[in-house]
Amino acid sequence: MNAFSQATFLASSGSAADRPPPGPPEIAFAGRSNVGKSSAINALLGRKRLAFTSKTPGRTQTINFFSLGDRARLVDLPGYGFARVPKAMRAQWQALVGDYVASRETLAGVVVIMDARHPLTPLDAQLIGFLGDLPLLVLLSKADKLTRPQQAAALKKMQAELDGQVMLFSSVTRQGVEECRSLLEQWLEKPGSAGR
């Protein structure tokens, strides 16, 4: 049984003070609002609504932790790039997520989800730069919206621009789901994956 099939909700955190204590290695998921992050997480976990999806950009303002049994945790970071959210709330997001990424000792890697039709926005690039040398996987979501030649072109372009692994992904057709699970399992099996 893989770790992802054992997912259960653990906690929501709106500040560093109310995060669950560090435990097993954590894999964080980040992405612009409405890029398909929650749908991708649910596809990877084999659930329909464990990670909540919303049509309102910027609705999720907390870091949500999911337990994958004793082996790992999955961490859903709030979406970024939502234009209609007040500036103070955007600053709060930056402080919340920035502190988590910079200080969480058990963070084993980050999955950044981008819309395959509009990848690597300035905000995506800023986030990736902030991650430093953490293991990085970019999922090009909504790949089902592109033709096969468009998918191949998008993948090639991103692989040339990023120092990290890139995969095409669709929560609708399940393209890339098994490959993503397999790679994340490898991250968790690496010696020292319980911390940086």
Protein architecture, described:
The chain has 196 residues and is an alpha/beta fold. It has a single domain (3-189), classed as Rossmann fold (3-Layer(aba) Sandwich). Helices cover 32% and strands 20% of the residues. The chain has five helices and seven strands; from the N terminus they run ββαββαβαβαβα. Strands 1-3-4-2-5-6-7 form a seven-stranded mixed sheet, sandwiched between helices. Strand 3 and strand 4 (73-76) form a beta hairpin. The protein starts with 7 loop residues before the first strand and ends in a 7-residue tail after the last helix.
The global form is globular
User: Could you give the distance between the termini?
Assistant: 26 Å
Largest β-sheet summary: 7 strands, mixed
- Tell me what the CATH architecture is: 3-Layer(aba) Sandwich
Adjacency order of strands in the biggest sheet: 1-3-4-2-5-6-7
Strand element count: 7
Which stretches are low in confidence, meaning pLDDT under 50 for 5 or more residues running?
53-59
Q: Find the CATH superfamily.
A: P-loop containing nucleotide triphosphate hydrolases
Give the fraction of residues assigned to helices: 25-40%
Q: What's the Cα radius of gyration?
A: 16 Å
- CATH third-level topology: Rossmann fold
Q: Compute the number of helices.
A: 5
